[in-house]
Amino acid sequence: MSLIQATEWAPDEETRRSCQSKGKTEIECQNYIRVLLVNKTEVMTCGTNAFQPLCITREVWMSVSVLERVNGVARCPYDPRHNSTAVVTESGELYAATVIDFSGRDPVIYRSLGGMPPLRTAQYNSKWLNEPHFISAYDIGLFTFFFLRENAVEHDCGKTVYSRVARVCKNDIGGRFLLEDTWTTFMKARLNCSRSGEIPFYYNELQSTFYLPEQDLIYGIFTTNVNSIAASAVCAFNLSAITQAFNGPFRSQENPRSTWLPTPNPIHNFQCGTINDEGPNEGLTERSLQDAQRLYLMNDVVQPESVDPLVMQDDVRFSNLVVDIVQGMDTLYHVMYISTEYGTILKALATPNKNLQGCYLEEMELLPPGVREPVLSLQILHSDRSLFVGLNNRVLKIPLERCSTYKTETLCLEARDPYCGWDFRQRRCTTLEDSSNMSQWKQNITVCPLQNQTTNGGFGPWAPWQPCNNDDGVDGVSSCLCRSRSCDSPAPRCGGKNCQGPTIEVANCSRNGGWTPWSSWGQCSTTCGTGFELRQRSCNNPSPRHGGRVCVGLSRDERFCNEGVSCPQPIFWSPWGSWTKCSTECGGGVHSRVRTCENGNSCPGCALEYKACNLEACPEVKRNTPWTPWLPVNVTQGGARQEQRMRYMCRAHLSDPHELQIGRRKVETRFCPNDGTAACETDSKSLKGPPTHKLWWSSFPSADLQSPCCMVCNMRGIYFFSRILQ
To answer: Where is the Sema domain (predicted)?
Structure first.
């Protein structure tokens, strides 16, 4: 595919700002194309235009040239997320099913443009349209058909969704006074797509349709509700079955509280007939306006072509559908291409033959492994025999026929592909159109193909030996014999293993192997002391091939290195020495031990270690000094005197009795009369007083005389000081 023309169509800045001022996001305030219709030489496009819908008509081959601009309201939704559909008739009328207001609360089926008057469904009447999701629209004969799903107004027990087909007459001009500017021919009927059984299982939500005008068939994809277990089905409806439902009785409700009951159809075969009488009602359809106002829901359900759906699958949701009619060997086949929410395409058969119902021919993976992306649209271009797949940001083109992928007769026939058959004359799988002779073309579509049949690959026979040339890059080009085989008997399928073994054999041109030059010597295995280093070479200069001799000799060579480089001696501490004698015999002392740093002086830690010792208390020692001579201290007027003498008493807990602390002094006083008539009377008492001899501690030395700090790593160290008792 190649790009022919491109036209950018974006909302102007003022429109975008107006959209955002109403609470919409920047992403919502863009222009999303929701209607694209081709009518002869013109193409009509309608876009959301930042919540101000706009339609533009251009020439098909001149997309830059704008022929007409019209308001897009009632032709295109405001919100790009709203489901809508449209179709243009040959006479130029546009039939659109969309929402007509900004909030999306007024759904409408609306006719505009062309020569007919604009008409719409009844406004704000949920019995006509009840929160619908429009799927598709078709111009068929006298009617325009609309396919949709909506909340079932006739369901009186909870909320449920029904799929519908609605139709209006193309010649409808509305009512006079009653239903003015409103459809008078609007009718709708329920579509039934269900799995048969005692209690049928219904697929209530229509997702996509495809119309086959050659067969008057409408194919539809139906799924379960999004909140239910995922399941999907494809049902086909004949236009005659749809017409039969519209010709049957209506279902109506007399008042909002009454039940919905069948009501006879006044016109059993309504074909958009009109009133021919001249007067105010000239041109009106033959339906009475009173009936048109209350009779629009059909009582009968449109039944599908077959009792069970053509295809059913659980745990997956189908999204889009196209159907191709293929001429087989004996009959016509309807081949369905069904897209899934995961981004795959299912190729299946649609046939009334019970042996072929639900036949999946193949599943095509469009995306890389692990990537999931829903398919937005499918379209068949018959002139190109291709299927076009619309994804979020690209379009894929897939051939409808891929018969060349089936290499053998067995694979071709077991594929059960209506496009393909085995041509015995050409000995290959071809389409019917490409066959050399109809009588030489075989097809076998009697049962469904086997699915998920894992097949490991197998080699076919060797082809005959043929001359071939071999260029080894060294000895030049040599003549050889070659033969090959393919992994196609069978080819690996469904995850089967590939063939194991060579696909080519070469003979009569053997080549002996040759060594490459030695590599440089590698790094020595040690940094000191004797080690070894290595060099290598490979036998690929050239490599031995086709029975040639391998290289003779070693592929690696070693030698010693660093033989004269001695490794340094390890640095370590010697064992600790013995503890020295304790500095005191009692009262707490210290002793020490030492160690030395071997082979250096940078060992971590301390070389000297101290420890407390002899912590028990020393015995108490007492000592008295001799008495001093008697000395007078007080003399009376009468000549008497008082004399004193003293001695000192020392006591301490010391190991050495000579190191005593001076304690109390003892003083004796005596009184002596001057006449010597009596002996001196002695009075003894102990007094605190200054000692005649004092012991004291010397001061601590200065910092420069302190011992070296003993510290290990980042721990706190200790300095040692000493002083002397003097």
So the answer is: 1-400
The enclosing H or E element of 240 equals: helix 239-247
Task: Say if residues 538 and 575 touch (Cβ distance below 8 Å).
Answer: no
CB atoms within 10 A of CB 456: 15
Q: Which residues contact 269 (CB under 8 A, 6 or more apart)?
A: 247
Using alpha carbons, select from 429, 426, 380 the residue that is nearest to residue 404. Answer: 429
* Consecutive H or E run containing 247: helix 239-247
The residues near 144 (Cβ < 8 Å, ≥ 6 apart) are: 87, 89, 95, 137, 138, 167, 168, 170
Lowest mean pLDDT segment, chosen from 284-298, 565-579, 653-667, 702-716 = 702-716
Q: What is the mean pLDDT of residues 114-124?
A: 92
Q: What is the pLDDT of residue 580?
A: 92
Q: Are 220 and 208 in contact (CB under 8 A)?
A: yes
Per-position b or e across 407-444, b if 16+ CB within 10 A of its CB: bbbebbbebbbbbbbbbeeeebbbbbebbeeeeebebe
**pLDDT-derived band at 282, boundaries 50, 70, 90:** low
Tokens linked to 324: 């191709």
- C-alpha–C-alpha distance, residues 179 and 446, integer Å: 56
The alpha-carbon radius of gyration of the chain (Å, integer) is 56
The CA distances from residue 479 to 467, 472, 476, 506, 508, in Å, are 7, 11, 10, 10, 8
Please, what sign has the CA dihedral across residues 257, 258, 264, 268? Answer: positive
**What pTM does this model have?**
0.63
List the one residue out of 170, 37, 167, 36 whose CA is nearest residue 91. Answer: 170
H or E element in which residue 245 lies: helix 239-247
What average pLDDT is seen over the chain? 85
pLDDT (0 to 100) of residue 87: 95
CA–CA dist 349, 119 (Å, integer): 41
Q: How far apart are CA 146 and CA 168, in angstroms?
A: 9
Q: How far apart are CA 17 and CA 50, in angstroms?
A: 9
**Per residue in 326-351, pLDDT tens?**
988 888 899 999 999 988 999 999 88
CB 352 within 8 A of CB 332: no
- Residue of 237 and 687 predicted with greater confidence: 237
Output the pLDDT for position 473. Answer: 59
Q: Are 218 and 209 in contact (CB under 8 A)?
A: yes
Q: How far apart are CA 510 and CA 257, in angstroms?
A: 97
Using a 10 angstrom Cβ sphere, with 0-12 exposed, 13-18 middle and 19 or more buried, the burial of residue 477 is exposed
Q: Quick one: DSSP state of residue 655?
A: S
Domains and CATH numbers, the chain: 13-197+244-304 (2.130.10.10), 344-442 (no CATH), 620-687 (no CATH)
Name which of 300, 286, 99 is nearest 184 in CA terms.
286
SS3 703: helix
Strand partners, 233: 222, 312
Phi, psi torsion values for 226, nearest 5 degrees:
-65, -25
The CA distance from 284 to 518, in Å, is: 103
Cα separation, 287 vs 488, in Å, equals 68
Phi/psi region, residue 411 (left: phi>0; alpha: psi -120 to 50; beta: rest), is alpha
The type of residue at 368 is P
Q: Does residue 203 contact residue 224 with C-beta atoms inside 8 Å?
A: yes
Label each residue of 111-135 as H, E or C.
EECCCCCCEECCCCCCCCCCCCEEE
Point out which residues pair with 66 in neighbouring strands: 58
d(CA 230, CA 319): 12
Q: What is the DSSP string of 574-636?
A: PPP-PPPPPS-SSS-EEEEEE--EETSS--SS-SEEEEEE--SPPPEEEEEPPPPPPEEEEE-
pLDDT band at 712 (very low <50, low <70, confident <90, very high): very low
